[in-house]
Design a protein that fits this description.
The structure holds two protein chains of two kinds. By secondary structure, chain A is of the alpha/beta class. Among the domains of chain A are: 1-9 and 21-185 and 325-349, ABC transporter transmembrane region fold; 187-300. Chain A has 20 helices and twelve strands. Chain A has a six-stranded mixed beta sheet with strand order 6-9-10-3-11-12, with helices on both faces. In chain A, a hairpin with a 5-residue loop joins strand 1 (366-374) and strand 2. In chain A, helix 5 packs antiparallel against helix 6 (187-193). By secondary structure, chain B is an alpha/beta fold. A six-stranded mixed beta sheet of chain B has the order 6-9-10-3-11-12. In chain B, strands 2-1-4-5 form a four-stranded antiparallel beta sheet, with no helix packed on it. In chain B, a hairpin with a 2-residue loop joins strand 4 and strand 5. The radius of gyration of chain B is 36 Å and the shape is elongated. The chains are: A alpha/beta, B alpha/beta. Chains A and B meet through helix 2, helix 3, helix 5, helix 7 and helix 8 of A and helix 1, helix 2, helix 4, helix 6 and helix 7 of B.
């Protein structure tokens, strides 16, 4: 008996995957071709594996043969056993067993290597791909979705494709080999032992048809229930505030009941396969016993052949039964691979145009010429925007959430691709600059300051890799971050955890400003925080930003009156258009949108003072 | 935390009968499997040896019978076990959900939403699968293993010892394997976590990476963890690859041994050849039982961890509850008083609120301003008893809120939380959370006040528009406005607005505030805001800093005597004061 066939976890997989319907791959041939690109580096290993599977398959077929032979030697009974022959047969059997063990080990050893290397490479190319994708892509895909592709799907490829391919090959070798051996030993017995094959086929087909529908329904019910759980537990504060515990519990009980009803049915139907298959196997065993016994009584075959047949029929039917599930696993692996390749096929960021020039010594003149942008067709976010600002100008962008302020900034920095119109910096279209050099001219301090895990020093250094320690400290001093950093026990070596969560919002922003100062950009993009950090830090941030803005073209997504009023130019954005432009007093005199905005927010100041 | 799994007893008791029925049929099923090789050996040794055709057919029929009975047992067992496990899982899920809904916020904070959700989904599933597995193969595997040994002993005692001798050898091999592979898998898991960590960080910081052109740096960082994962997995998988062939080899050597000893014994006349065939067959069943047992062990470890995690929830004591004989709390006016209130989240942590005392008259508006972390949200969470103060008393209309029925207390208070949360369902259904019996007119009235009516009507389905999970198809400002309508519909005596217009543009915010003023003449309003312009016209403003009240009064009073308030004002308005004043 070869233990390798026992390795498939028949029906006992944990977690949600156990009740998932089989996923269908869309275009198998294409995906396999793509996969081959990753696997072909391991050609030698794959070829060796294939050879080993073949050899081990043949060895597996020799085992029943030798056992049958041994039984035949023993069968004559007392004092008639030829020990010389028995010794020979058993030595050969032992040799086959050991060789098979060694080969199985080698084969698994090699497969493990191939699988891990391939997955490593896939992960690596996925990551490189991420690097070249435009920001729009990240804005339109959730992190959860991307993470699941980078982890689950890639792992799936490693586990299923390498393992089930080997299993598939082994199955084929076994089916063909044992069939040949059986026919060679006895044609009549072969027919007798194959009677169960159509039974198995019929059984699995009927059950699969039934369970396919049930699993789908179960998955839907589970999805609804999980949705309800996530909503009402994530929102338990609201549930309690509105005294709605009973309401959500009732709903839960209802959906849980639906899930259970379907679950019982699905479980019962899918649960039939294993035991009924077992029963069919036992049935086959009985047939071999009766049929073989009858033939042996008539001296048509030897008892050894019956023994061999018991093994061969198992080696024939078992992989045949598993072929379907192996194929399903392979398919879900390929479906996972498809999702991975989908990501690899995403449209990349625009490459540098031919003859692109490096953006150096930029003065900071910015011009938008009839720029439009939309995420979805017919839903323009920006509509025909035109303006020009001289170097060193402070521009405040004012408008409601969703008016298009952030989009202007994203287009300017090249995070988003313009669809219509052009943007010029120092009179040259930004498409004509080398992208890498273009990004270097911008410094950004965004509202949600992102710091990486690492030390504070490393995070500031992110602005300019070759900066000296003195320069880092100098930048931190300018941004007023130095004070609090030097008060930390580890100072600049303080380790920030993922997302930098152990610093306050304001402190993180100060570090981000230091980073921007160190990068010494020609054009600054500032997004003012709406949530107030503690007042003293807030004042520091404003001072630091003012320091940073000196002599640079600056675009500020502004929320504070002070910032807005001190800007050289205020642009009021509404519905993707610039509705007003000018400095504070000009716009107030105009008594338009800005005036209304200003008065609605600040009108009661007059009363107070 | 206490992960006692005693709670499972209840379900064991409930399903004991069905469980044992399933087990009985499972054992019958296994016995059917086990008898087959013995009958087979009889056919060879008595039928074939003596050329007795009738005997062959007689026993052949017996084999069919046994197969049939085995199949019937399997079918019954499958139906019973499926029902038991699904019912058990559903019961457990339901009880756990009800328990979670009854937990106080302090408990929920301790568990965190996400882990409660996984406990309710993954962990319950894990236990349910284990329960089902137990009635399917988990019990069958050892029964088959022990049965195989017993059957061998029944056929021949000496050969039985060969089978029995294999058991400890394979057992040791399995133990060694567990000892080696467990730490390897933890190492692989850790390496995988690192890869995921870098990836997650990269996704979250993608703008910064792009802004600073730090592709090479990120690439090398990822390469480092990715290479490490490959190396660790490679080493681990290769060691594990050794295990399966070794176990197989041990069992296979047993088969060779049986054939050799069997040959000797047949030659001496003390054994029949058919029995040898049966022994070999039992040997393979023993191997199956071994392979299965290791898997069961893994499943058990996982299910046990899940059971303990669920136990932690069940064993949590609820600390916020209604007193036994609550005071009547009808027709209240909404006068709110804090009396030297202190609060901290954990026994040994710092006070988040210290010595908070103030009062608001019925119908007044109280605004709270202060920096993040100054304790504003904590303060309002004490009013509907989401948390209880560590020290001090909170009174509504002069009654200690701990002395009234919790349900009635919350019935009189409405909150618009900082993070807007809407539920799957139509817009109307969402607003009606405030009052299930409200008419369409009432719903529209509050929607008009919260400036939601117009945009709701702009949707094709109007108030019947369906919101996906979390109301994803609305903008932040729109969600906030629906949440305000929902709270207004409740006609609360006390309305709490926790920075709930942050995503609404300034003009609309102004209009909403004006509408609220008219609608809520008798309602006490408590308002947390970030913008100083939102708090300026409140009857009373609390300025908070570091968990204490550092200023209290109306706008002009605070401008005169609160340094913190002036700082906030200056930071937001700059020189606005002088400008407008001049």
């Amino acid at each position: 008996m070869d233990p390798r066939r026992k390795r498939t976890p028949a029906g006992i997989s944990g977690g949600r995957r156990a009740i998932m319907p089989v996923e269908k791959a869309k275009d198998i041939r294409y995906t396999l071709n793509r996969l081959w690109d990753f696997f072909k580096k391991e050609k030698i290993g794959l070829f060796t594996t294939f050879l080993l599977v073949l050899v081990s398959g043949v060895l597996g077929l020799l085992v029943p043969f030798f056992i049958g032979k041994a039984i035949d030697v023993i069968f004559p009974g007392p004092n008639l056993v030829e020990f010389g022959r028995l010794k020979l047969v058993l030595t050969l059997l032992l040799f086959v067993y050991i060789l098979d063990g060694v080969i199985t080990f080698l084969q698994e050893y090699i497969v493990a290597g191939i699988a891990q290397k391939v997955v490593h490479d896939i992960r690596k190319s996925l990551f490189s791909k991420l690097q070249s994708l435009p920001i729009v892509f990240f804005d339109t895909h959730t992190h959860g979705e991307l993470m699941s592709r980078l982890t689950n799907d890639v792992d799936n490829i490693s586990n299923t494709i390498s393992q089930s391919t080997v299993q598939f090959m082994a199955s084929v070798v076994n089916i063909i080999g044992s069939l040949i051996m059986m026919i060679r030993l006895s044609g009549l017995m072969t027919i007798a032992s194959l009677i169960t094959v159509p039974m198995v086929y019929f059984l699995t087909k009927t059950i699969a048809k039934k369970t396919k529908i049930l699993f789908k329904e179960q998955q839907e019910a589970l999805g609804l229930l999980n949705g309800h759980i996530e909503e009402t537990i994530g929102g338990i504060h609201v549930v309690k505030a509105f005294n709605k515990e009973d309401k959500v519990v009732d709903e839960f009980i209802r959906q849980n009941h639906i899930l259970k009803e379907i679950g019982v049915k699905a479980q019962i139907w899918s649960g039939f396969i294993m035991p009924l298959m077992n029963a069919i196997n036992n049935f086959g065993f009985a047939i071999i016993a009766i049929f073989g016994g009858t033939l042996a009584v008539k001296d048509k075959i030897s008892v050894g052949i019956i023994t061999s047949f018991i093994f061969y029929s198992k080696q024939f039917t078992k992989p045949l039964n598993e072929l379907a599930s192996t194929f399903n696993t392979l398919q879900s692996g390929i479906a996972g691979a498809e999702r991975v390749f989908e990501l690899l096929d995403e449209e990349e960021e625009r490459k540098d145009a031919e003859g692109a020039i490096p953006a150096i010594d930029i003065k900071g003149e910015v011009e938008f010429k009839s720029v439009s942008f939309q995420y979805e067709p017919d839903e323009p976010v920006l509509n025909n925007i035109s303006f020009k600002v001289e170097p060193g100008t402070n521009v405040a962008l004012v408008g409601a959430t969703g008016a298009g302020k952030t989009t202007i900034v994203n287009l300017l920095t090249g995070f988003y691709e313009i669809e219509k119109g052009e943007i010029l910096i120092d009179g040259i279209n930004i498409k004509d600059y080398q992208k890498d050099s273009l990004r270097k001219i911008f410094g950004m301090v965004l509202q949600d300051t992102y710091l990486f895990s690492g030390t504070i020093e490393e995070n500031i250094r992110y602005g300019r890799l070759d900066a000296t320690y003195e320069e880092i400290e100098e930048a931190a001093k300018m941004s007023k971050a130095h004070d609090f950093i030097s008060r930390l026990p580890m100072g600049y070596d303080t380790l920030l955890s993922e997302g930098g969560i152990n610093l306050s919002q304001g402190q993180r922003q100060l570090i981000a400003i230091s980073r921007a100062i160190l990068a010494n950009p020609s054009i600054l993009i500032l997004d003012e925080a709406t949530s107030s950090v503690d007042t003293r830090t807030e004042l520091k941030i404003q001072e630091a930003m003012a320091e940073l803005m000196k002599g640079r073209t600056t675009f500020i997504i502004a929320h504070r009156l002070s910032t807005i009023r001190e800007a050289d130019i205020i642009m009021v954005i509404d519905n993707g258009q610039i509705v007003e432009k000018g400095n504070h007093s000009e716009l107030i005199d105009k008594k338009g949108k800005y005036y209304n905005l200003y008065m609605s927010q600040f009108m009661n100041i007059g009363e107070v003072v | 935390m206490n992960g006692n799994t005693n709670y499972l007893k209840k379900y064991i008791k409930r399903y004991k009968k069905e469980f044992f029925i399933a087990l009985t049929f499972l054992i019958l099923e296994a016995m059917g499997d086990l008898i087959q090789p013995t009958i087979m050996s009889k056919i060879i040794d008595n039928g074939v040896k003596n050329k007795d055709m009738d005997y062959v057919f007689k026993l052949g029929k017996l084999m069919f019978l046994v197969t049939g009975l085995g199949a019937i047992s399997a079918v019954i067992r499958n139906i019973v076990s499926s029902k038991v496990s699904q019912n058990f899982g559903a019961d457990l899920r339901e009880d756990l959900y009800i328990k979670i809904q009854s937990l106080s916020f302090e408990n929920i904070d301790r568990f965190q939403d996400a882990t409660l959700i996984t406990r309710l989904t993954n962990d319950v599933n894990q236990i349910q699968n284990f329960a089902h597995g137990m009635m399917r193969v988990f019990v069958k595997a050892p029964v088959l293993g022990i049965g195989a040994i017993v059957m061998t002993f029944l056929l021949d005692i000496k050969m039985g010892f060969i089978l029995l001798g294999i058991v400890p050898v394979v057992g040791i091999a399995i133990l060694i394997n567990l000892r080696i592979s467990y730490p390897i898998f933890t190492r692989i898991q850790r390496a995988l976590d690192k890869v995921n960590g870098v990836m997650r960080e990269y996704l979250a910081g993608i703008r910064v990476v792009k802004a600073f052109n730090r592709f090479d740096y990120e690439e090398s960082r990822f390469e480092g963890v990715n290479d490490n994962l490959r190396d660790v997995s490679l080493k681990g998988m290769r060691i594990v690859a050794l295990f399966n062939p070794i176990v197989a080899l041990i069992v296979n050597m047993g088969i060779v041994l049986i054939l050799w000893v069997g040959g000797l014994r047949v030659n001496s006349g003390s054994l029949e050849v058919g029995k040898i065939m049966a022994f070999i067959n039992y040997m393979t069943r023993l191997l199956f039982s071994f392979v299965m047992s290791t898997r069961i062990l893994n499943m058990y470890i996982r299910a046990k961890a899940s059971a303990e995690r669920i136990g932690e929830v069940f064993n949590t004591e609820n600390i916020i509850y209604t007193k036994e004989r609550p005071l009547p709390f009808k027709d209240i006016r909404g006068k709110l008083e804090f009396n030297h209130v202190y609060f901290k989240y954990h026994d040994n942590s710092k006070y988040v609120l210290e010595d908070i005392s103030f009062s608001v008259e019925s119908g007044e508006t109280l605004a709270i301003i202060g920096s993040t972390g100054s304790g504003k949200s904590t303060l309002i969470n004490l009013i509907p008893r989401f948390y209880d103060p560590t020290k001090g008393i909170i009174k509504i209309d002069g009654i200690d809120i701990k002395d009234v029925d919790l349900h009635e207390l919350r019935e009189n208070i409405a909150i618009v939380p900082q993070k807007t949360l809407l539920f799957t369902g139509s817009i109307k259904e969402n607003i009606k959370w405030g009052d299930e019996n409200a008419t369409q007119d009432e719903v529209e009235k509050v929607a008009k006040i919260s400036k939601a009516h117009d945009f709701i009507l702009s949707f094709n389905e109007g108030y019947d528009s369906y919101l996906g999970q979390g109301g994803v198809n609305l903008s932040g400002g729109q969600k906030q406005r629906i949440a305000i309508a929902r709270a207004l519909l409740k006609k609360p005596k006390i309305l709490i607005l926790d920075d709930s217009t942050s995503a609404v543009d300034m003009i609309t915010e102004k209009e909403i505030r004006k509408g609220l003023k008219d609608y809520l003449k008798d309602t006490t309003t408590i308002l947390i805001a970030q913008r100083i312009t939102s708090v300026m016209d409140a009857d009373k403003i609390l300025v908070m800093d570091g968990g204490r009240i550092v200023g209290i009064g109306n706008h002009s009073e605070l401008i005169d005597n609160s340094q913190v308030y002036r700082d906030i004002y200056r930071s937001q308005m700059g020189r606005g004061l002088e400008y407008i004043g001049s």
